[in-house]
């Protein structure tokens, strides 16, 4: 079977065409794919066959609809025309599934629900809906377009980790619970960590990118995570505030003369590293300014590290100890300075870095001392593979249900 994985970000789109058998856990062939960044500006396109992703240049792609159309035309006309013709399904990463299913058809009714949930994940849901609609229009009725939940991995969290201390009837009526996010990324990181020889029943994954989260994993199952009802909860992120006192929402609405939706936009889009530094949401720029004694950037860095350490320690508590700490995401993979700052002083729970390994690492690998009680490792996520596997599993299940 051939599937297309579509992974929309707030201003980006990753896409990949893959071939796999009915066993979704088996070998998968990467046929072609790429990444479109800076959508809405001069979009930068990297794409190629197999695993190659050379820079194709810049394109005028005003929105996710245009980016999806470009990706599908490139796959159909240049990269893999025969495979596109034989496409069995497309899977689209959905930040929050309205029906709580791991994979579900993205009908027009389902897309309307996702639009209604945009207030929960405003940085992603609009992009998801645009990509899904563009794919449905381009691929036609013969190719199902499926939503693959980014929260399904956290369905194993116990009730105590999923619950808010709110009236139970209110929670039941409105489905209020901590569903968590970054599930596709965390699941793929765990798989790659195990393939690289990583082991241990108690693992904390620190996913540090534009969005940031900490997840406690016990024997392969999520038991706690920092993001909750929305991706706003938890760590300081690129433009998201992370945890704030909820009383700030009505206070800011009154003080600034704005409504609740505008306060949420402030917390999601103009806070975090960007809001504290006053200059950038990019950790690389924060680090450069900090090195030049810019106090606001230094505070942004310190807040980011402080919140990550707090949630890391919380996950260790949920697990009753720790055997491995895994860094992932753009910041986690590329900033030795951030990794060092987060791990500093955590010897009491067995976490320590080898400074030379950490500083020299380019890509993936262990950064803890040899023989350390807690393995600290950097692993890149592969969300597109997770989307493909979930899509293949859904197709296989649907075929099996039809019977001989």
Describe this structure in words.
With 404 residues, the protein is α/β, with parallel strands linked by helices. It has two domains: 2-155, Nucleotidyltransferase, domain 5, CATH 3.30.420.40; 198-378, 2-Layer Sandwich (Nucleotidyltransferase, domain 5), CATH 3.30.420.40. The chain has helices at residues 64-79, 81-85, 108-116, 125-139, 159-162, 168-174, 183-195, 248-256, 260-269, 272-277, 283-291, 295-319, 329-334, 336-343, 355-360, 383-402, and strands at residues 2-8, 13-20, 28-37, 42-49, 55-60, 89-94, 103-105, 145-149, 202-208, 212-218, 221-225, 324-328, 365-366, 375-378. It has an eight-stranded mixed sheet with strand order 5-4-3-2-1-6-8-7, sandwiched between helices. Helix 3 (108-116) runs antiparallel to helix 4 (125-139), helix 7 crosses helix 16 (383-402) and helix 12 (295-319) crosses helix 14 (336-343). It is globular and about 55 Å long. The protein starts with a strand and ends with a helix. The model has no long low-confidence stretch (mean pLDDT 93).
